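Moderator note: this is an archived Q&A kept for reference. The question asked for a predicted structure of one protein chain; the sequence and the answer are reproduced below.
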Amino acid sequence: MFEVVERPRRLVYRSTMTMPDGSSLVTRTHVTFEGTATGQTRVAVVQSGFPSAGLRDEFADGWSGIMVGLARVVAARIA
């Protein structure tokens, strides 16, 4: 659920995930967009609410993959 939408600078949303063991995990994600001097956009993603550092770290690779995919989509649209 979106909690904050400040176009074009910031999004904050809460999500609930069902884990393989049947438990639920609620996290909050802050996404910010910042223009750079070269005309690019810097995107920062901070996800919080994990019950442990280990579980948080498991999600880090997922965000890396999402950002790589996003970069491919943006590059294709520019070309």
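Archived answer notes: DSSP finds one helix and four strands in the chain.
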